[in-house]
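User: tRNA (N(6)-L-threonylcarbamoyladenosine(37)-C(2))-methylthiotransferase. Structure?
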Amino acid sequence: MDVALPLTAVYSAGADQGHKEPTDCEMAKILNHPRVYAFLHIPVQSASDSILMEMRREYCVADFKRVVDFLKEKVPGITIATDIICGFPGETDQDFQETVKLVEEYKFPSLFINQFYPRPGTPAAKMEQVSAQVKKQRTKDLSRVFHSYSPYDHKIGEQQQVLVTEESFDSKFYVAHNRFYEQVLVPKNPSFMGKMVEVDIYESGKHFMKGQPVSDAKVYTPSITKPLAKGEVSGLTKEFRTRRENHLSAVSHTSAASPRCAASSRMVLRMQRLHHNCALRVSVGVALLALLFAFFVKVYS
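Assistant: Predicted structure:
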């Protein structure tokens, strides 16, 4: 799930259309739902407030930290991913070091690092640019920090419920995800595809874990409620469903019990249309006769 800061209780620019931004508590409630991955992508872009101002972002680093800290407390184990732009115009060494400190502090398991590229016609393209060499070096330095820690080592030995969704690129494993959308590689057993499986985590890498199904693992389809029948509408209350069914039954009963009434009604409608058409024709005929009479009177008088 992706969100943009600020994540607050205030109305957004679209408030007059009834749109309201979700609050931190509402977002935490959603992420704690059993059918939602506890994963959130919150792009911070830079940990320097001065650079964020130059980017015209509507938040500061303190806002980002407040949201992340709150969600980590309310959604234990949540995965937070973020984006960083290296070398935005005006970024100093001090600005960059603040970003490095943020990554070292939070140790994001998923981090997208990009060098700034000036798009023609944008305000940033007209600003004084950071040299390509500096941008490249900062990207390398931040990548080095990112690869200096292992986010999943502490999970070795855990038992996790994972959802198997696809085959790995090397075709050696199936790819599954746990509650926090962390990638877990499992053996290629065709019966696992699309199913929930309980596994023991026995190995970890920078971007993945490996799991072995437990001996008595229950393999099942992840579904909380029974699928809806064809034509059934979700979100209806039991009371509304009952009233709707009773109404349909009454309409069906009336239609079946009164075929003669229906036929009589159709006959009445046909007679009414016929009467209307005859009256219209008589009116047109009378008007034409009046015009002819007036014409002859004018000619012979």
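Confidence is low (pLDDT under 50) at residues 7-19. DSSP finds seven helices and eight strands in the chain.
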